[in-house]
Design a protein that fits this description.
By secondary structure, this protein is of the alpha/beta class. The protein has 7 helices and 12 strands. Helix 3 packs across helix 7 and helix 4 packs across helix 6. The longest helix is centred in the last third of the chain and has 27 residues. The mean pLDDT is 91.
Length: 249
């Protein structure tokens, strides 16, 4: 069995797959301790591990050591490369492209085999474009909902509210009748405007022939914008399997 880890800024996404890629167990955790406990509770024999991390080198190294000690397996850690699985990295310095973006691009290309727009909506929003021949054309980065919210709360003293109220504030997009509603709905409108513009620009670039991919924790907030969106929650992990092939385990 193969343990796959996607270590984001806020959470660690994990799953255990068999040699054919079938998911046997998985979930989200907020800490290394919770992660090790959840994996142990799954009661599945781990033979190998592959990992993608956007955390610091020190944090990533510490987690790799913990996995090695706990389960006795080596860890393959994904890196951004100049070329992989039919995709050419669009950055002049390929290692500077965020590895989570790189893996999402690999995953999308493997599914579409044609022009792609890849939107990952997390702490930050990333947009990446891939041409028909597998060339990564670059992309865009802007703040996601968590960053927009935190910046307003940090720099505006009177904006304070808990996460428990966010879902209710996003139930509709009418003008807010409280500061919380006004902030959440304003940020949501900015998010949706960015996504609409990306779709419009990509369709113009590729003459309408483009596959639209959505992933990330806030993807559901924009899924209704276009009927051709393909929601792939595990897109980064799909790319991870391509970047770190481990054979039959």
């Amino acid at each position: 069995m193969i343990l796959e880890l996607d270590c984001g800024n806020s959470f660690i996404k994990w799953r255990i797959v068999d040699a054919q890629g079938a998911v046997l167990a998985g979930g989200w955790t907020g800490s290394e301790v919770e992660l090790l406990g959840a994996i142990s509770d799954a009661s599945l024999l781990i033979n190998a591990c592959r990992l993608v991390s956007v955390r610091s080198d020190a944090e990533t190294a510490h987690l790799i050591m913990a996995i090695n000690r706990a389960f006795g397996v080596n860890v393959c850690c994904a890196r951004s490369e100049s070329w992989c699985a039919g995709v050419q990295n669009g950055y002049a310095d390929s290692g500077k492209l965020g590895v989570d973006r790189w893996l999402a691009v690999l995953g999308a290309w493997s599914l579409a085999k044609g022009p792609c727009l890849v939107l990952d909506l997390g702490t930050a929003i990333t947009s990446d474009w891939v041409a028909s021949d597998g060339r990564h054309l670059g992309g865009y980065i802007c703040p996601g909902m968590p960053l927009l919210r935190s910046q307003l709360q940090t720099h505006t003293r009177r904006i304070r509210y808990g996460e428990a109220f966010v879902a209710s504030a996003l139930a509709d997009s009418s003008p807010g009748v409280s500061t919380m509603e006004a902030v959440e709905r304003g940020c949501l409108l900015m998010l949706r405007a960015f996504v609409r513009e990306q779709v419009s620009l990509a369709r113009e670039q590729f003459a309408g022939n483009v596959s639209l991919f959505l992933t990330g924790g806030d993807a559901l907030l924009v899924r209704d914008i276009d009927k051709e969106f393909r929601l792939v929650p595990d897109l980064v992990l799909h790319g991870l399997a391509l970047a770190c092939p481990l054979g039959d385990k």
